[in-house]
Amino acid sequence: MTNRHDKDHVDSREPRFAVALSDTDNDLRAVQYALNIVGVCDKQGDWRHKVHGIRVIHTGDWLNKWAPAIEMIDYFMHLRRTAPKGCDLRILNGNHELEILHRVERGEYGHLGAARTAFIRSRDLLHVFGRTLFLHGYPTLHLLRFLMQLREEKGDLNLFNDRVRKAFYEGDRALFRNKEGKVLMGNIKQAKLYYHGSSHDGEKRSVKISKLLKELGLHTVVHGHRPNMLVQKDEAVEMDTPGIRIVNNDNQPKKSLLGAALVDRKGEVVFVNAREMYWQGGEQKFKKQIREFLGLHL
């Protein structure tokens, strides 16, 4: 890892890096450990006051759908409320959070209370940082075509999250769960079969998806949802998406205790996991290298 900040021009008004978490599934310890390793938070889980230019993004399944942890919700509400100048927090909802909201509608999980439920419901379903798309599952043709339609109406991709939430929370579309009368747009059970299959005109879906992402001004996708074997995976070759990097950031952090991806505004990705820490010489050396990469002098 090298420090490239003097060479790269970055808009000082926007965070320079994103720290992406995925599928932590109620595990507050895994979240706080990852944020401490990269230098964003101290060991107690609070923002470091000297941190600047960092955006923390969680790509969904931050809660367990069967038993959502109040302390996990409260911690993210706290981080969002106390973020220092130049830093922020973007929490996306995955299939777990959408299932929780569905169960709340049925009268379950009343212990969460109105404020916590409102916090879950107000989270976005996707986020664009630089030229990288963050979302919970793999991008599908249905979803990307919908985003193209919204971009034509709104322009900036991050300006239409309200429309996206309305479509999936209140409208006729569903992301991960079949609902009567709704169009399922986001769930892929077998990603390789889906991407390598052909659409109605005979062109491979992976090629069409690549074209749509490029039209949207994107060249990197970071997602979770499908667990890997304790390390992140760069799936561009597997998915056969020309010119598009697809990163699966779900390395089962509940088991590995450490999982994150560092992404700059140009889409360069650095993985943070237990294997990388071992190869870099242990926790202290790994911390130092990552913090130098992020330009954090703590």
Summarize the structure.
By secondary structure, this protein is α/β, with parallel strands linked by helices.
- CATH T-level topology: Purple Acid Phosphatase, chain A, domain 2
Give average pLDDT, whole number. Answer: 90
Beta percentage is: 15-25%
Number of DSSP-assigned strands: 12
Compressed to H and E, one letter per element, the order equals EHEHEHHEEHHEEHHEEHEHEEHH
Distance between the termini: 18 Å
Q: The biggest beta sheet, please?
A: 5 strands, mixed
Proper CATH architecture: 4-Layer Sandwich
What does this structure look like?
- The chain has 298 residues and is of the alpha/beta class.
- It has a single domain (17-294), classed as Purple Acid Phosphatase, chain A, domain 2 (4-Layer Sandwich).
- Helices cover 37% and strands 16% of the residues.
- The chain has 12 helices and 12 strands.
- It has a 5-stranded mixed β-sheet. A 5-stranded mixed β-sheet has the order 4-5-8-10-9.
- Helix 1 links the parallel strand 1 and strand 2.
- Helix 5 (141-154) packs parallel to helix 8.
- It starts with 16 loop residues before the first strand and ends with a helix.
- The model is unreliable at 1-11 (pLDDT under 50).
List the helices and strands and how they pair.
Blueprint (H helix, E strand, L loop, with lengths): L16 E5 L6 H10 L16 E5 L11 H13 L5 E4 L3 H11 L7 H9 L4 E4 L2 E4 L5 H14 L6 H9 L3 E2 L8 E2 L6 H6 L8 H11 L4 E4 L9 E2 L1 H4 L5 E4 L4 H4 L2 E6 L4 E5 H6 L3 H12 L4
Parallel strand pairs: 1-2, 2-3, 5-8, 6-7, 8-10
Antiparallel strand pairs: 1-11, 4-5, 9-10, 11-12
Helix pairs in contact: 5-8
